[in-house]
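Anyone else keep sequences and structure tokens together like this?

Example one:
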Amino acid sequence: MTINQLSQQNAFTTKDGSTIRSILDRTNAPVQNQSLAEATVPVGQSTERHYHKLSEEFYFILEGQGSMEIDGETRDVCPGDAILIPPNAWHQITATQTLRFLCCCAPPYAHEDTYFAIL
């Protein structure tokens, strides 16, 4: 049995600029097919617009407010919202109030599966 306490997980910054605490992933559990993390985006900040070739993502907003852009469509988000981000979908989340949300990825999140626009 694997049980990980969120408060005991170390925070790190992902390639897109959000602060993450992995709750269950390949680094701290015998995970095979998915990962679960808590993400934080400070007020006035955004993640860098990006996509994942392999991972399907779910965001579940716990605290704060902001806007979610997926493939050019933007919607306001708030606590209780669940957001589906398909593989290959460009996306970015912006905080109008500090956002805290759960991020689930299948397959598990990997820096190597995060792609940005080449300018």
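And example two:
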Amino acid sequence: MHCELRRLNRFLRDFDKLTAAEQEEVIRAIEFLIAHLNVRQPLSKGLGLKKLTRRHWELRAGLQLRNVYELDQSLIRLIIVANHNDVERFLRNV
């Protein structure tokens, strides 16, 4: 299975505001997620993956940052990258 990655505009804006170190953490977490999805292995609990809604998932990047994404077949849509409080606010408006 090959996963396609699509970054939504909000994700790109959020990502651009991060420090270089935070950006590296986000990229590393996403690469790890894709690697696991491509080989269809169970995800590591240390990845910090959590189902938020029927459509939305959270992927932790370090201690503070969360990536919210949708997974549709082999398409990963990155929606936002934010802290816990911003993710909660996003979910209230979905």
